Structures are given as structure tokens and as C-alpha cells.
């Protein structure tokens, strides 16, 4: 700064004054040389003297111009350096201002936001209170829910009606028990058929029986078994042409008891519900049942009153009741017949063929029964068998 001040105040002004003085001196030297060349007798000498003054004046002026130019250039350099320093300072100030503005902007943005406190924890946290496992409860499967669903059975019933002959044992069936196919009754043995409704036959003159009991003729071409003499599920009932020996189960379709239409029979003595009498059932016609005794049945007693119905014991006719084998248990709940073949899956189960007789000694809640078959005791599914014994309530 001092150097610049010295140049501005001393050296440059002195150089300018030196140039002005040289200008004035050159004017006087020029006038002198002109007058001297005119008045001098020796022109050559006057010319040489003029050349000498001219050279000296030119050198003096050139030196002074050079000194002044150097001082001016030095002044410009100093001022350029000062401008660079000033520019650097301005840039620094500009950056400082920008930083301050960014800080202010961040502060204003931070005011609009909320702090989020993040706690470092495990992503998988075990529950504080362990849930108690729910105990699995097996519900028995009702395999008869979908019996009326589909087109096959309904179409066959609509096509053949109720007069279709009994099915033989050559029918193919799927694996039980998704939908139980009808078990083919064996002709001549009186086995229980299933899913065969009572058929309506044409009027045939019935045999002479008491007023409160009627039988119907056997079906043509069908298998035969003794009819049951009481109904557990149709009490009370009226004797309006219905057979008194109708079975208690709808699926006992192999029974020989039918419902005659417009049969001229004597009217019953009483009108209203009449209880089934505890009398043995009438035998089938002797020409169609050669396997049973052909002796005439004992005469039925007179009809009992309705009040004695609860005390009456329902008699039944068991085609398998020729006598329990020696291996049969003394105490059993029910006597059943197998309607499907079953092969055991575990050691504690039974294996049996269709038509095998099993004595049930225990019924479990899950649908499995425990029974005895051919001196072997084990478990078997309850939907593979069908009861052949019916007792009173």
C-alpha cells in the first residue's frame, strides 16, 4: 500500500514534470540550432552540433518516458493484485453468506419436522404370554349329508320308479365310505339290503289274518327275509291300510312286507294309534322261504291297548339268529353285519369281508366300534356295518 502511495504521489508526478521540462528544453534547443545553422559561417560544424543536441534530447526524453511508463506499469500491477485480493475477499464473504443462508434454511425446515426416536430392538420378539394351544377335537363325519345331492340316484329313481328289481352282487362300487353303495342282498339267505324303499305292488288278495294285522304279498323276483313286526320310529300310527310289520329302518328294503293298495280286508276294530303287539311275526309264504320252518304260526293275540305300548317289548326277526357261535361274547351291545370289506390298517383293528357278523361290545364317540369277529377282538369303523338287531326304546 505504501509503494502504491509513493508511486501515485512522488514518482509518477516527478516523471511527468521531467517530461514537461524536456519538452521546453527541446523547444529552446531547436530554436538555438536553427539560428546557429543560419548564422554560423561553418555550416558543417553547425550541423554536427545540431545532431549532437538532437541525440542527447532524444535520449533524455526516451529515458524519462521509460521511467514514467515503468512507474505506471508498476502502479497497474499493484492495483491488479489489490483487485485480486479484493475479489478473493468478496468470494469468501459470498460463501460465508451462502453457508449462513443454508443453515437458516435447514433450521426452518427442521421446525416443520418432528423428531423420531428410534429404539434399537430385536425384530422378532417372543410374546410375553405364551398362547395355550387349542386342543384338537375330532368331530364325527356324517357320511349321509350328501346322499341326496347329485343326479345319479334321482335319475335312476325317476326312470325305474319304485318297481325296479333288487340289485345283484355284480354292481361295482367305489371305496367306502365316501358314499355308501347299496350292499347287494344275497338271494335265498334273507340278508338285509339297504337304500331300497318299500315298493307299491298291485292288489293281491291277502291271506286271512286278524283285523289289526295285515301282510302283503312278496315282491316278484326279489329276495325275501322275515318282516319285522314293530316300528320304532312311526309311533303312534293308524291302521289305514298300512302294514303292521313295516321295518323300523328305511334301509331294510329286503323285507317282504309291502303296502297293498285297495285290498279288501276287514276294517280294524279301533280307529287311532294302536301299539305293536309282542307277538312273533307271521312267516312268509312257504313256497318262497324254503329255509325257514313251514309250520303254521301261532294265532296272534287280540290287540292291546295304546296305554300298554310303553311296556311292550318289540319283537324282531333276525335272519342271523340261528344261534350265536361259541366265540360270541356273553355280553354285547349290538349285533351287526358288515356291508363293506375292510382291511385293518393297525394291529388293534379288525379285518372282515362283506356279510361278516360282528358283536359290538363298545361304541366310541369318534365313530369307531370295538367288537368281536371270528374270535378276534379289535376296532372297526361304525359306518362299515349295519345293525341287524333292534330293541324297544
UniProtKB/TrEMBL annotation:
The T-SNARE coiled-coil homology domain, residue ranges: 45-107
Q: Which GO terms describe its cellular component?
A: cytoskeleton; filopodium; lamellipodium; SCAR complex
List all Polar residues biased stretches: 161-175, 222-235
Could you tell me what this protein is called?
Abl-interactor 1, transcript variant X13
- Gene responsible for this protein: ABI1
Checking Gene3D superfamilies in the record gives: 6.10.140.1620, SH3 Domains (2.30.30.40)
Q: Which PROSITE patterns match?
A: SH3, T_SNARE
Question: Where is composition skewed (Low complexity) in this entry?
Answer: 248-258
Keyword Lipoprotein found: no
Q: Which PANTHER family match?
A: ABL INTERACTOR 1, ABL INTERACTOR FAMILY MEMBER
Per UniProt, the keywords (alphabetical) are:
Cell projection, Coiled coil, Cytoplasm, Cytoskeleton, Phosphoprotein, SH3 domain
Its family?
Belongs to the ABI family.
Domain (SH3) spans 331-390
Keyword flag Coiled coil = yes
> Where are the residues of the annotated region Disordered?
159-305
Ranges of Pro residues composition bias in the record: 278-288, 295-304
